[in-house]
Amino acid sequence: MRTVVITLSLLFLFVTSKAQSTENLDTWRVVKTRQNMAILGGWALVNIGGGIAGMRFTKGNTYYFHQMNVGWNAVNLGIAAVGYILTKPSGESDPFRLISRLSAMENSLMLNTGLDVAYITSGIALIELSRHQPIRSDQFKGFGQSLILQGAFLAIFDIYQYVVINKKKNQFLKEKLSIHTTPLYGCITFRF
């Protein structure tokens, strides 16, 4: 009877430990994603407000710079709002699925970083084009400057998120995964 009680107690501790570990990782994912969406939304609101004011009091390429900031950040604000609202705990207890979810987030952020570089490059191209198109020179230059600013912010933002997620994922794996080898056999252990 004591053996059964001890075995059941150890099994309960194992299951509880597994659930807490993955629950903490899932909670961390939700909190971090919502924090990042709040940062993106804040950036968008500042740019929309500053852009509206800037459009009212400026002319030339500066006017178009502010105009692009307003339009660009209206989209950012929508993305931030939807991302914040839709980010919920997955209820997932399988650590491999949670790690897979974090890896998918990393892949998405690397793709976004590539797009950010494309935005910056497009901005540079528009500024160069402004030198050869006198009729729309101010518009091209202002839009180009805005694309460079927005692309640079998003690149820093996405790379920062990638680094934080990667660090957390690797920390989780380091705590839970160990590899043991001897001359006769190898063993990989995943601790829950």
From TrEMBL:
TM region positions = 37-58, 70-87, 107-127, 147-165
Q: Which domain of life is it from?
A: Bacteria
Instruction: Tell me which positions the record assigns to the signal sequence.
Output: 1-21
Q: Do you know which Pfam families this protein is assigned to? A: DUF6992 (PF22503)
Q: Which UniProt keywords apply?
A: Membrane, Signal, Transmembrane, Transmembrane helix
What is the protein named? Uncharacterized protein
